[in-house]
Every structure is written in C-alpha cells, then in structure tokens.
Amino acid sequence: MKFDFGNTFVAVAPSRSDVFQVEIVTTEKTETRKNSDRVRFQARIIEGAKSGDGEKNCTVRDGFNLPNSGDDYMDGMMARMWMQFFISVGYSQDDIRGKGFDFEKTNDSGAFEYLVGRTGYVKYAPADPENGRQYPNTTWLTADQYAAATNAQDEVSAARSTFGDSVEKILEMD
User: Which distant-in-sequence residues (6+ apart) come within 8 Å of 137 by Cβ?
Assistant: First the structure.
C-alpha cells in the first residue's frame, strides 16, 4: 500500500531567526489554560529572506486569543493582532472591517478552511530560555515588508561580494 504524505507536516520549528514566507496548513480552535478562546494555526515555511530554502517545510506554530474577553485593552490588542495576521495572508483592511469574522464558528466544518493554503509573511525568532524568552516570537508582516527584508538581505550579500572582490584585487597586486 502506498501512502501520500503530500499534506503531512511535522511541527519542526525553524532553527534561526528570519523573515519567512509561509503557507497556512492547519487551523484549530482551542482554549488557553486560563479558559480564553484561542485559534491556533500551523504554517509551513516556503522560504526565508536570509535563509532561502534552508528552513523550507519547517513549521511556525502561532495563534491568537479571540478579542472577546471583555477587557477593552486586551480585546483591542487582540483585534490589532488579528488584523495584522489577516492582512499578512492577503485580506485588505476594508474587507476585514466590512465582513468581520465569526470566531465562534472556527471549528465548524469549513469555517476557517479559507485560511488553509493562504500565504503570508512572518518575522520569527526561536524561543531562547537562557535569555528569558520561553516562547518563539512572531510578528506577521505584509508582502511589502517581506520584500523589503529580502531586498535588504540581497544588498548585504552584494556588499559582501563587492568587498570580497576588492580584497582579491588588492591581494593580486602584491
């Protein structure tokens, strides 16, 4: 019997900090230890601004509490995080404001399947318990922010290449 592992992803986190282009592969509604509603998702890495395909198919696990705690400050912060995420995966702010999303239906059949397969961009730093960071740090970015990070990395690489060429020319003169 032959098995198809085409849509099987193991949660292996990237080993280094980078800005990654990712594809959402799973979503699920959960509850935190403090009984807050939360949506978690897993995103597979397509490529990194610095690492190229060195972290390809590693997964970034992330999630956000729902903006329904009753605490205006926390709910506002969660709404901004959700907005940033939705923009990252290709929705416009106007669409989000106009449509809204029914978070209560997250686990209903088909409710959040529209996220699966969408691409987005995330700045990721692994957990670093030795320096007080127990969990990975993620920030969802726009396509333009990802492009800027990629262009900045290309410029660094070009500068290194130019410097290397100059050193070689100086050494040849001796």
Answer: 124, 125
- Judge whether 37 and 101 are in contact, CB under 8 Å: no
For residue 145, count other CB atoms closer than 10 A to its CB: 16
Q: Which has the closest alpha carbon to 62: 118, 136, 133?
A: 136
Residue 47 β-bridge partners: 21
Look at the pTM and tell me if it is higher than 0.85: no
pLDDT averaged over every residue in the chain: 82
Supply φ then ψ for residue 100, to 5 degrees: 70, 175
Residue 8: partners with Cβ closer than 8 Å, 6 or more residues away: none
| Contact (CB, 8 A) for 81 and 64 | yes
